[in-house]
Amino acid sequence: MFGYRVPAPDQAMLISGGRRGHGGAPFRVVTGHGKFVLPVFRKVRFLTLAMCEAEVAEKCVSRQGITLTVRAVIAFKVGNDTESIVNAGQRFLSDQEQMAVLTGRIFAGHLRAIIGSMTVEELITERQKLATEVLDTSKAEMAKIGLIVDSLQIQSIDDGDTGYIDAMSAPHKAAIQRQAQIAQAKASQASAEAEQEAARNQAEYARQTAVVQAQYNAEVDRAQAQAAQAGPLAEAHAQQEVLSARTELAQRAADLRQQQLVAEIVKPAEAEAERIRVVALAEAERMKIQAEAAASHGRVALDRMLIDQLPQIVKEAASGLSGANVNVLNGADGLGEIAASLVGQGLTILDAVRRNMNESEGKKQDRRGQEDGVVDVH
Predict the structure, then answer these.
(1) What are the boundaries of the region Disordered (predicted)?
(2) How far is 239 from 233, CA to CA, in rounded Å?
């Protein structure tokens, strides 16, 4: 709308040409809203309320007389209240860039005054103290011109070519260097120890790996050897078991055959021999009795009787063999040998009976001779 003016958010609108402003100010202050201004009769100007910056690079002398170059940055602005806007508008409305110039000069003067009361060591170690004191001393002066300071930063303090700050920091630098060297040495030692430990661990791992590999290879070789020998060993073991079984079977067969031979041949033969012996003794005793009873009939009658009994003796001996389980191994010759044996046994018995009869007859004659007083010598 024609004649209606609105200031920006970071501006203050100053209207002159009408009635006076607050507190007798030569203009009215409008912020945050618009205002209808009559053309020709009213004049409108705008004052910035934005943040401004001023840099300071000032040579100062410390309490020890050491020249220092101090660089600082001041952040400032026009105050938001009407009084500050009026004060700043009256001073800087026509040339608002002068606010930064004047602010730098004001702070440069306060820096020189405060640094002159401090030592270099205090300035280096207590920069915040320096900034606080500068702000406090400049606050009232800045308020008079309608400005407020938001912050003050001391950027650097330089002693030029005097070397005072370097000398002051030398012990600390040396200590820091020593600490750095010690730390580097410790780090190098730790690194070397770590490398040595890693080498030892690697060597131990390689040794253990070699041992395990050797054991594994030995196990594999042994398993392969056992696998290769398993067939022949199993076959040999089986053959050994077969031979043992055959030997045991043969031994059992031999024992059984021996028992069979004892049962079939030896025992019957022993029984038959015992029977023949008993029969022969019985016959001899009978013939002896007969001989004694028939002694008076003479030798011829006795021999005749024995000869007559010989076939019967042989027959009885032969009948004893009929029940025996006798194996004849050589055929007809074997049978002849058995018959001859029987006859020989009969003749042996006959001779035994005859000798007994003769001995008995001789003893009787001897007794008769003793009775008659005559000894018959044969």
Answers:
(1) 358-378
(2) 10
At residue 58, φ and ψ (nearest 5 deg) are -125, 140
Q: Which of the two residues, 162 and 107, has the higher pLDDT score?
A: 107
Nearest to 85 by CA among 112, 46, 116, 111: 46
Structure confidence by residue, pLDDT tens digits, 142-186: 999 999 999 999 989 998 888 888 888 788 778 888 888 898 888
Q: Give the span between the Cα atoms of 78 and 31, in whole angstroms.
A: 13
Cα distance between residue 125 and residue 100, in whole Å: 29
CA atoms within 13 A on the CB side of 325: 9
Provide DSSP, 333-364: HHHHHHHHHHHHHHHHHHHHHHHHHHHHHHHH
Question: Within the chain, how many helices (H) and strands (E) appear?
Answer: 8, 8
Give 259-310 pLDDT, tens digit per residue.
777 777 777 777 788 888 878 887 787 777 766 766 655 555 555 665 666 6
SS3 at position 314: helix
DSSP lists the bridge partners of residue 55 as 73
Q: Assess contact for 122 and 129: CB atoms under 8 A.
A: yes
- 344, two tokens: 């020989």
Q: Which domains does the chain have, with CATH numbers?
A: 4-167 (3.30.479.30), 265-372 (no CATH)
To the nearest 10 degrees (0 to 180), the angle between helices 298-322 and 331-372 is 150
Decide: residue 163, CB within 10 A, 0-12 exposed, 13-18 middle, 19+ buried.
exposed
Contacts of 90 (CB under 8 A, 6+ apart): 26
Q: Token pair for residue 185?
A: 């040495």
Indicate yes or no: pTM above 0.70.
Answer: no
Both tokens of residue 267? Answer: 């025992």
Q: What is the DSSP letter of 40?
A: T
